[in-house]
Design goal:
heterodimer, A: Rossmann fold, 4-stranded parallel beta sheet, 7 helices, about 10% strand, B: alpha/beta
């Protein structure tokens, strides 16, 4: 993972956090990644985050490129191929944090996600817990570490 | 492209931030799982960037249908640029308009209206698959 330096970190402070999630339709953990994105941007930190389509980075969409160059970016991937992180980094914009949903599942292995088009309740709960954990990262950039 | 395509590739934009992306994703999955499981394959669209040469050969290996959630047409344009020309390009918003279905607004937790819209998109994908295979 590319790292951000102190100067870059300073530039990003106080800005909305851009969230990019896995686009996969092959595995439940990809759906969990998207659900984490929705939970974080709709429920947990709606005022300080923005969810954007990963596909926009594949086609070099100018607005999406501006977003990742000027804002702190979180990538949430559903598998080790790490499409979200790699697509962001391919544009020379290091992510401030990159997550893989399997790591949340390892910590909460009683919540086994199932379903791709429709996540089961365990998958939704896992995503909600993960989004709550990610709130700290958002707060670090938007509020300098304090609670929202 | 192979001589006798037995399967058709489907590339969904999967747009996480737009309702059309959600419909695209669900419709594609429905085709892959229920409607044409033996005649369709897929690849995660961002793998054209994050994957390797094998992923970028996708549109050469399979006649490919792209299913975009909005008029930005990321899946169609990206497939064209990074893999090969799609055989057919579908856009969710146009399909809904043609069928007189109101645009959906939900990204998740879909209700009956969104599921019906996804079904309509899935039917268009199936028609495209059948047409491609019939003319191959």
């Amino acid at each position: 993972m590319q790292e951000i330096n102190r100067e870059r970190q300073g530039e990003l402070m106080g800005k909305k956090v851009a969230v990019f999630a896995c686009s996969g339709i092959g595995k439940p953990l990809g759906s969990v990644a998207r659900e984490i994105g929705y939970e974080l941007t709709e429920r947990v930190r709606p005022d300080n985050t923005v969810l954007t389509c990963l596909a926009l980075l594949v086609v070099n969409d100018p607005e999406a490129l501006k977003l990742i160059k000027e804002n702190p970016v979180i990538a949430v991937d559903g598998c080790v191929l790490a499409c979200a992180r790699k697509c962001i980094e391919s544009h020379g914009a290091p992510v401030v944090k990159a997550y893989q949903t399997i790591d949340f599942f390892k910590k909460h292995n009683d919540l086994k996600p199932e379903g791709i088009t429709e996540l089961n309740e365990a998958g939704k709960k896992l995503a909600a817990i993960a989004a709550d954990e990610l709130a700290g990262v958002v707060d670090e950039f938007v509020c300098g570490g304090g609670e929202k | 492209m192979t001589d006798q395509p037995r399967k058709v590739g489907i590339i969904s934009c999967s747009g996480e931030a737009i309702p059309g992306g959600t419909l695209s994703r669900i419709a594609c999955r429905k085709v892959l799982d229920e409607l044409r499981p033996d005649k369709s394959v897929t690849l995660c669209f961002p793998l054209f960037i994050a994957g390797g040469e094998e992923e970028r050969m996708f549109a050469d290996m399979f006649p490919t249908i792209t299913v975009d959630g909005c008029e930005k047409r990321c899946a169609a344009l990206g497939t064209e640029r990074l893999s090969g020309s799609p055989t057919k390009t579908l856009i969710v918003t146009e399909i809904l308009k043609q069928r007189g279905i109101p645009p959906t607004t939900k990204l998740r937790n879909l209700g009956p209206e969104e599921k019906a819209a996804a079904q309509a998109v899935a039917e268009e994908i199936v028609a495209a698959i059948d047409e491609i295979l019939a003319t191959a």
